[in-house]
Write a structure and sequence with these properties.
The chain is of the alpha+beta class and 138 residues long. The chain has 2 helices and 6 strands; from the N terminus they run E-E-E-E-E-E-H-H. A 4-stranded antiparallel sheet has the order 3-4-5-6, with helices on one face. Strand 4 and strand 5 form a beta hairpin. The two termini are 28 Å apart.
């Protein structure tokens, strides 16, 4: 049976908000803005060729934990991941509110459009700042 998880400890600078993130081997998204990057086929293997940004699209509160769902902006791949204690609780609440409002208003697509515009704005702002010897980005 193939391994389904490979613990890979990496630090990275977020491509969306620019936060420096210290990885712990389980970190797969920015704890500030919750965005991720499509780098894995199986968690931690870094075998995905896509490399697209993964937009946070949903938050699910379960009995034992909370799960964040990401959708790749480039290829559409979806992945569910547990949230961390380090994740910004306001960002999680904001995402949950946006998803609920979009569902009531008639679709997730409008919320996805807003998120994509916000990501483009942040990426352009970070590009203007310039590369500062950044480590591998997620």
């Amino acid at each position: 049976m193939a391994r389904r998880f490979t613990r890979t400890t990496e630090d990275f600078d977020c491509l969306v908000c620019g936060a420096s993130v210290r990885g712990d081997g389980y970190t797969n998204h920015c704890p500030s803005c919750l965005w991720s990057r499509h780098v894995d086929v199986q968690p931690g293997d870094r075998a995905a060729d896509c490399g697209g940004l993964m937009r946070p699209v949903a938050v699910e509160a379960r009995t034992q934990d909370t799960v964040l769902t990401h959708a790749c902006e480039r290829c559409g791949h979806r992945r569910r991941n547990r949230v961390s204690e380090a994740d910004d609780q306001r960002a999680l609440l904001r995402l949950a509110t946006e998803a609920a409002n979009a569902a009531v208003a008639g679709g997730i697509d409008s919320a996805a459009d807003r998120s994509a515009r916000n990501a483009a704005h942040h990426a352009a702002r970070n590009a203007a700042v310039g590369a500062r010897g950044r480590r591998r980005r997620r």
